[in-house]
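Exam revision sheet. Question 4 asks you to relate a sequence to its structure. Input first:
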Amino acid sequence: MEKPLKIGIVGPCAAGKTTLIASLKSCGYDARHIAQEHSYVADMWKRMTNPDVLVFLDVSYANTLRRRMLTWTIDEYQEQLNRLSHARKYADFYLNTDNLSPQEVLSKVLEYLIRTGSIPDHPAP
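Answer key, structure tokens:
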């Protein structure tokens, strides 16, 4: 039996990680949040989860404030980006979610997974 594809999702707060993971799981995929944005260990994403595919969702500081009631500073946002730099460098797929709906984010991630042969080319349930 083939082992299921493990999809790791990283990115700063309010990038859409939780929503994407829920959507991928509802389609039957093993998607996991890796809280790299909160860790000082640069490659925690690899040590803890070692995903088959690493997806990096990005978002601008301005959109983090619009999407959630965050009370953080630009310096705190930049610190998260610093903590995420290793994961971003090694991500298989990078997506800025600023101007995308949750459905568009899911569609773009699924398109990438199909294009690379990571998942079969069939519509998600």
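Marking note for examiners. DSSP finds five helices and four strands in the chain.
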